[in-house]
């Protein structure tokens, strides 16, 4: 696996231009105000939900930026009044104050997981109450001087949505009462956390081949915003191939890495930048000393949007003459991804090796 850093990341992003980045890598509903420029968006550190419905380690992600008009189009008038204008619903009127089902309460504005049924308690106030958030990173606080008193406001870290207030009259172990508005929350039942995290953990898939999959996986595994990785075989005709089969050069499969990522934390363009930066895309059926069609450079796209984006990036790199030879990277629709043997998964992490080889 080649880990030589070709100096293109910022060049690629500049070549693509801000209009292309906004159009092709960010969902329209998550677009920032019209005066936003790439690099302007602040970032925050939060915990999302993995594919088992459990909290991830802290991840650095962009804040959710929307114009006032976008928020009004996305929310009901009551949700907008509370989340964006710091309103308060009437006690005993919200849908969640007397709610007891197991699961997680996520932000209505951006889907970030905020509070769990395990921390919920009956406060008698008529509002959903919790003695702690699911992760301290996901909730921000702010001094509120309204109503002629000093209170501590609770905000969603990612979208700054108003959630409620926190008071020091709760039960052990924290002694706190996070008093929330039902309209600020979306409840996700425990059985659906892995599949329906309500936008708090958006998930997309990308598949790349760039030589020996050990090193390729490690590069993507350590990329911020990537949620999980797996190595396997794809692009060929043989079903259920083994490593021995693929090394025999009769399957047509490439050694590939499947990347599961949060598109709010890392864009597809940024993943393509990582891909082109960490191997030589001009080599045909090889990377460094590794020869064979299983080591070819390829992008296996999972949607028309990915195909269009990958094609644009490849074309712009070719036009930039960043590489001394034509780019040989193949772009083709993703087929069946056959998982490689267990000992190949996260091989470099298991063995402690820094890399496979350098050119």
Count of individual domains: 2
Rg value: 24 Å
What's the architecture of the largest domain in CATH terms?
Answer: 2-Layer Sandwich
Uncertain stretches: 1-39, 196-201
Helix residue percentage? 10-25%
Annotated CATH homologous superfamily of the largest domain: Peptide methionine sulphoxide reductase MsrA
CATH topology of the largest domain: the name is: Peptide Methionine Sulfoxide Reductase, Chain A
Describe the fold and architecture.
- The chain is of the alpha+beta class.
- It folds into 2 domains: 9-43 and 201-351, Peptide Methionine Sulfoxide Reductase, Chain A (2-Layer Sandwich), CATH 3.30.1060.10; 68-192, Beta Complex (Metal Binding Protein, Guanine Nucleotide Exchange Factor, Chain A).
- It contains 8 helices and 19 strands.
- The protein has helices spanning 9-25, 68-74, 77-83, 213-221, 243-247, 268-277, 304-320, 347-351, and strands at residues 43-46, 59-62, 103-107, 113-116, 120-121, 129-130, 139-144, 151-156, 162-167, 177-180, 185-189, 204-210, 226-234, 254-261, 286-287, 290-291, 297-301, 330-333, 338-339.
- The strands form 5 sheets. A 6-stranded antiparallel sheet has the order 5-6-10-9-8-7, with no helix packed on it. A 6-stranded mixed sheet has the order 18-17-12-14-13-19, with helices on one face.
- Strand 7 and strand 8 (151-156) form a beta hairpin.
- Helix 1 packs antiparallel against helix 6 and helix 1 packs antiparallel against helix 7 (304-320).
- The chain is elongated, with a radius of gyration of 24 Å.
- The termini are close together.
- Mean pLDDT is 81; it is low at 1-39 and 196-201.
């Amino acid at each position: 696996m080649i880990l030589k850093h070709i100096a293109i990341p910022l060049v690629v992003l500049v070549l693509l231009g801000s209009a292309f980045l906004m159009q092709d890598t960010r969902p329209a509903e998550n677009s920032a105000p019209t005066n936003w420029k790439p690099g302007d968006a602040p970032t925050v550190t939060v915990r999302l939900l993995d594919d088992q419905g459990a909290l991830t380690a802290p991840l650095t992600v962009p804040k959710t930026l929307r114009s006032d008009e976008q928020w009004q189009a996305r929310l009901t008038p009551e949700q907008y009044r509370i989340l964006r204008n710091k309103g308060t619903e009437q006690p005993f009127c919200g849908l969640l104050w007397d709610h007891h089902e197991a699961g997680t309460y996520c932000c209505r504005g951006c889907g970030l997981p905020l509070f769990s049924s395990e921390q919920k308690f009956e406060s008698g106030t008529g509002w959903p109450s919790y003695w702690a958030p699911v992760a301290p990173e996901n909730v921000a606080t702010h001094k509120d001087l309204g109503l002629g008193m000093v209170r501590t406001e609770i905000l969603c870290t990612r979208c700054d949505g108003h959630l409620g207030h926190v008071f020091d009259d709760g039960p052990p172990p924290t002694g706190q009462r996070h008093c929330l508005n039902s309209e600020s929350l979306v409840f996700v039942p425990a059985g659906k956390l892995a599949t329906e995290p309500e936008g708090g953990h958006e998930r997309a898939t990308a598949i790349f081949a760039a030589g020996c999959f050990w090193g390729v996986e490690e590069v993507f595994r350590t990329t911020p915003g990537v949620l999980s990785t797996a190595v396997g075989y794809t692009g060929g005709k043989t079903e259920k191939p083994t490593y021995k089969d693929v090394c025999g050069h009769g399957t047509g499969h490439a050694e590939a890495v499947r990347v599961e990522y949060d598109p709010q934390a890392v864009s597809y363009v940024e993943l393509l930048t990582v891909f082109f930066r960490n191997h030589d895309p001009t080599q045909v059926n090889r990377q460094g000393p590794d020869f064979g069609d299983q080591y070819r450079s390829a992008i296996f796209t999972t949607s028309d949007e990915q195909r269009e984006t990958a094609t644009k990036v490849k074309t712009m790199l070719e036009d930039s003459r960043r590489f001394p030879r034509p780019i040989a990277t193949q772009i083709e629709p993703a087929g069946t991804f056959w998982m490689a043997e267990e000992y190949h998964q996260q091989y470099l992490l298991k063995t402690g090796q820094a890399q496979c080889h350098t050119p």
